[in-house]
Amino acid sequence: MVSVSGRHRMRTSIRGAGAAAAATALVVVVGGSWVGYQQLAGPSCSGEIQLGVAAAPEVAPAVEGAAAQWVADGAAVGGTCIKVNVTASEPVEVAAAVASKHGASLAGVGQASGTAVTPDVWIPDSSTWLLRLKSGGATAFAPGNGASIARSPVVVAVPQPVATTKFGWPDKKLTWNDMLRAVRSDKPLRAGIVEPTQDAAGLSGLLSLTAAASGGGGDAQQATTAALRALATGRSALRQDLLARFPRSNDPTSIASALGAAALSEEDVIAYNNTKPPIPLAALYLEPSPMPLDYPYAVLPGIDQAKSSAAKVLFELLTTQGFKNRLAVQSLRAPDGNWGDGFKAPPGAPSPAGGGTAVPPSGGTAAGGLDPVAIDRAVSGWSIATQSGRMLCVIDVSGSMKTPVPSANNASREQVTVAAASRGLNLFDDSWSIGLWTFSTELVGSRDWREIEPINPLSGNRGKLEQGLAGIRPSSGDTGLYDTMLAAYKNVRDGWEPGRVNSVVLFTDGKNEDKNGISQSALVSRLKELNDPERPVQVVIIGIGSEVSKTELQSITNVTGGGAFVTEDPSKIGDIFLKAIALRPNAPR
User: Fold this and answer.
1) What is the rounded CA–CA span in Å between residue 413 and residue 570?
2) Are 20 and 52 in contact (CB under 8 A)?
3) What domains lie within the chain, and their CATH numbers?
4) Which one, 126, 304, 528, 562, has the greatest CB density within 10 A?
5) pLDDT digits 0-9 by tens, 150-196
């Protein structure tokens, strides 16, 4: 027996029903033959084993078709019938549920809806979801070298008249630098993107565009930030909302004012054009090729032997020529980039194996060449550049911050920290309000902290903050962590503003050493008293060096929300800072 639920995300505003959650770690199936299909198929069976499969909406019909054929041929394990329940589930919904169960943090994803069911098999649209879950704290995952069952190149969708006049489509070969110039010209092309924190095609396009911006010479960070903000003005939370902003008539004014470019999958463009819109979309295959959607086959461990055998056989069925033909009906390619019978490639598409990141000769490995660090940087940079917040930055200036950092050419911990904060400052736009404190012990009389700049909009105090950061020097004092944290929390809470992320971000390289200050238990108790769910203040603490106690820091953030991040290598705090700032309270999905 087989059933399928959910709908294609591009053709409806209704998200896939019953988004699936993973109860434990993910084990991604690797290549190689498993128990043969014929060994588990029989003419008769009794009882029933239910195998739950959560698949990205566009691939779900093909998976359902293969499962239905298997069931029709007598799917059984040890004489017990198999029922396959295929649910069309948005990957972001499943990722939210998995993150919730594993205590992982995924910037921009939000909390799980609470209505998810647990699948035995998860087929998201991209291995980036698995990598983000692992790097976000779901350390039990093993997403590397996972088996891919399908593929769709990521392209830039452009209205065909615009593609012809502006880019010479379909004959001219184009690069991401060409697109970057079009987005940043005097008469910029209106670019859009589906939230890359929630959409794998959007993330792939973001990675490619920011790589072009950062590699263009000059101030790489400034160029990257400008590209992020240009995209942010045209972002959409849902893919169908973005598609609705493409021109709907042949009127030149309508074309000029509508969306002009967006990173989408090849399948998206084909499906959109199949609806016979007034202005079809061109699929631009830019170089270097962005990460394609690779549809990894991920099996949850802990299922019983019968389900495990059934899942293995189902995977075998999804590697056959027959399944390749089913994919073609859904406008999807096979994992090696080739396609089955009936696939109609968009004009300008490269050869069947082209149009995306090269795959190994086996043609079945997902996640090949993906860089988790680059993904984290892109997601964090996007989250910072596109959100608005109110933040107090608090930097340790105790004597131990003079310690040299060998991995940073022996710059001091203080210098490395200030440099990271300065780079981060450039990512925040003028809608942010930011203040700056330093702390040690007895920094101002008996007080452990000093206010360098109060929290004010960056539109008026950016220069003052830059000067304040440049003037920071280590003291000869110790670490007055607890008194400072309580004072900083009160300061942000007293000026709390609705509709924004209100936060304290504190850098420190040591444990609390203030013998005259409050105790840890007293601090935690006071924070619990001050914490108001209706007026949340998020606390992010970044610990630097081996003297920091993560347990001590987490005792604070467990009360306030936020997170504690510790690295023994201070040269890495730049990336940690961006990742930490990208965290924000998210409403349930």
Assistant:
1) 7
2) yes
3) 48-151+295-344 (3.40.190.10), 154-287 (3.40.190), 387-583 (3.40.50.410)
4) 126
5) 999 999 999 999 999 999 999 999 999 999 888 877 788 889 999 99
